[in-house]
Design a protein that fits this description.
The protein is an alpha/beta fold and 677 residues long. The chain contains 21 helices and 28 strands. The strands form seven sheets. It has an eight-stranded parallel beta barrel with strand order 3-4-5-9-10-11-12-13, surrounded by six helices. Strands 16-15-14-17-28 form a five-stranded parallel sheet, with helices on both faces. A five-stranded parallel sheet has the order 19-26-20-21-22. It is globular and about 75 Å long.
């Protein structure tokens, strides 16, 4: 059988390239997204961690990397490590656990990388060891950092040499040396962290000396036939730190020592603010201009770039224009591990493009007003459900992602069932898609003339282009999956009797809560604001600083309105956290949204609102008043449907069960359909 030729729209992105005798089948690389050592200390998710990399290899990526391993378990230890691994031993369980990564990736003819790192002065502390860095200093957490001397450097070089040999013996094709994000190599290059006056400080030639020693040690360990890719940040991203000019000079120094120089950005401990992890307010391809400068400066090394890439058209242009030789994908690997195969087969319009929402990787608390979740009343179990490695990898738009279930091990339906889904929002659409994939007959009923439900606001929100793309794709998949879709139709007893379903999934959504505050009828609910912008005056007061209120406030401010957000709690968007909240609050500051905290709205009027703040009652003038006080399930509709269903099994999914975020609705629809047997 003649293989299907690759999509002619992407000749550069799909062109193969050979490095050290190993062929990359295209220019797309799956970057690391979870600690490699998770398979050691979290055996309950081991299989799904392996599947994470395997699915990306199967999905057509040219190369796939594991997450990082620390090169030693002394002064170089990383997060979530509970025991050492002997990298000099090439047999036994620990060796086989690492080898399995290579086996899973290479099974699908992708190039397999093992990533490793040394975090230098930012390493975790473990008695009796202290972190080592270019300079001696006391970290902000009170930990003493020791300055590296020559003996210490030789010790770390040997650790790099040993783990590189370990990678070779495991069967990897190459290694990804993580020298960026503020780790030890970057610390030597950055003027912010290297103030040495010996042969390892001062000029770029001197500052690059230790990183070059490390790269030489890695090459000794892997030999001449394996690939060495170096991840490095373009900039520190903070005042006084390393700039792209420093990085370009450094890359000239190491040109040819690394086969591929992989340009990322920023510092791990300021991951959102330094664009180590870009957010949905950032442009796509945040590091492309940086990569292009490195590409122009080197002649022997290839250049790869990562950072908010989710559009194959943009990726094609990056390669075609010579700005980089490879494009790399991190969180996009969770959103759609079949990205390359969809590009190759001409189904690029069906890629689930990452929306950069941070559900897969929440990050750390960066914003000054953020508070740890345990200080917000969350239990240890709830916190662990968000921040442990086992909780990472869940994707808001790809419910078949994450480390908490095995889709192919779930029971297979005993026969095709007749399924009625009421409601064409995110939960109902995903339920229809999944139920059809499972072989069921599906009728989806939507009362309005439009599919999409609440997330249709993305057609109007200036910040939600990626979410709009997902909404449109969800609708397309549902309409093409073979489900019978009835628009402008009310699901009542007569319709249910006519369809005679075996199972009913109720996904009728929620509506904005309207608390009994005096004069509230003179105000507009936040979601309606998207559809009635012509009615909104210049000066807006928005009551309710939860996620919806903040995002609507940003939309209004982005359209030139002066916005004040009033919130009863001591922080804005209290239901969000870490990188997402940091991005949200930073953008509110950029758009000059005034925040009034710990204030209660007493009454709405035609010209503003009365509030009580810190015991004092006063008036906030406004041309338009808007309120955002949560969502309330459409209980009357639910009750009517349950009564009409009679003895037919019925299940609530999405916001009509519990108002939540998009990812909650998508996962609920998916799981409900998976459980129909």
């Amino acid at each position: 059988m003649t293989p299907t030729p690759p999509n002619p729209k992407y000749p550069h992105l799909l062109s193969p390239i050979t490095i050290r005798g190993r062929e990359y089948r295209n220019r797309m690389i799956a970057a690391p997204t979870l600690f490699a050592h998770s398979v050691y200390f979290l055996p309950e998710i081991r299989e799904n961690v392996y599947r994470m990399v395997e699915y990306r290899a199967r999905g057509g990526f040219a190369a796939v990397s594991t997450g990082e391993l620390c090169v030693n378990f002394e002064e170089g230890i990383t997060s979530f490590v509970d025991r050492p691994i002997d990298f000099t031993c090439f047999a036994g369980e620990d060796f086989e656990l690492a080898k399995e990564y290579a086996n899973r990736i290479k099974k699908h003819e992708a190039i397999a990388y093992l990533e490793f790192c040394h975090e230098g002065s930012r390493a975790e502390t473990k008695t009796p060891y202290k972190p080592w860095g270019p300079d001696p200093y006391i970290r902000e957490d009170g930990v003493q950092v020791q300055a590296l001397n020559r003996e210490m450097m030789e010790k770390i070089c040997n650790d790099f040499r040993v783990i590189a040999r370990f990678a070779r013996e495991c069967g990897f094709d190459g290694v990804l040396v993580h020298g960026g994000h503020g780790f030890n190599m970057q610390q030597f290059i950055s003027p912010l962290t290297n103030h040495r006056t010996d042969e390892f400080g001062g000029s770029m030639e001197n500052r690059a000396r230790f990183p070059k020693m490390l790269l030489s040690a890695v090459r000794e360990g892997i030999g001449e036939d394996m690939i060495l890719e170096l991840r490095f940040s373009a900039e520190d991203g903070i005042p006084g730190g390393m700039t792209i000019e420093d990085t370009v000079d450094f890359c000239r120094e190491i040109d040819g020592m690394a086969d591929i120089i992989h340009i990322s950005n920023g510092l791990k401990w300021k991951g959102n603010r330094t664009q180590t992890f870009s957010d949905f307010f950032d442009i796509h391809g945040v590091n492309v201009e940086f990569a292009a400068k490195v590409k122009a400066a080197v002649t022997k090394s290839k250049v790869a770039v990562i950072g908010g890439l989710n559009d194959p058209g943009m990726c094609e242009e990056i390669i075609a224009s010579g700005q980089a030789d490879f494009v790399e994908f991190g969180r996009q690997g969770f959103a759609d591990p079949d990205f390359p195969n969809k590009v190759i087969s001409g189904r690029e319009d069906y890629i689930r493009r990452c929306v950069r929402c941070f559900q897969c990787y929440p990050g750390s608390f960066e914003h000054e007003t953020d508070k740890p979740l345990w200080e917000r009343g969350m239990t240890k179990e709830q916190v662990a459900g968000i921040f442990t490695p086992a909780a990472m990898g869940r994707c808001a738009i790809n419910p078949n992602s994450g480390f908490d279930h095995y889709p192919d091990r779930m029971p297979i339906p005993s026969k095709s069932r007749n399924v009625l889904i009421v409601g064409g929002g995110a939960a109902g659409l995903q339920a229809a898609i999944t139920a059809r994939e499972r072989g069921h007959q599906v009728t989806l009923v939507e009362q309005s003339g439009r599919l999409g439900g609440t997330i249709n606001f993305t057609d109007l929100d200036m910040d939600k282009a990626d979410l709009r793309n997902f909404k449109n794709l969800l609708i397309r998949e549902a309409t093409e999956c073979g489900a019978r879709i009835l628009m402008n139709t009310t699901a009542d007893r007569a319709l249910i009797e006519q369809i005679s379903p075996d199972q009913i999934l109720i996904a009728v959504g929620a509506h904005p809560a309207k608390p009994p505050i005096a004069g509230i009828e003179q105000a507009m609910d936040a979601l309606s604001a998207y559809y009635h912008m012509e009615q909104i005056g210049k000066n807006v007061v928005l009551v309710g600083g939860g996620l919806v209120g903040c995002e609507v406030g940003l939309h209004l401010a982005g359209h030139g309105h002066t916005v004040t957000v009033v919130e009863m709690q001591p922080m804005m968007a209290p239901e969000t956290y870490c990188y997402y909240r940091n991005a949200l609050l930073d953008e509110m500051d950029k758009r000059r949204i005034r925040q009034v905290l710990e204030a209660k709205c007493l009454a709405f009027t035609e010209t503003g609102i009365w509030i009580v703040e810190k015991g004092a009652r006063h008036f906030l003038a406004a041309d338009t008043c808007v309120y955002s006080m949560g969502m309330t399930p459409n209980q009357n509709t639910v009750d009517a449907l349950l009564e009409a269903a009679g003895s037919i099994p019925a299940r609530l999914i999405g916001d009509c069960e519990r108002a939540g975020k998009l990812g909650d609705a998508v996962r609920a629809g998916y799981m409900a359909a998976m459980e129909i047997l």
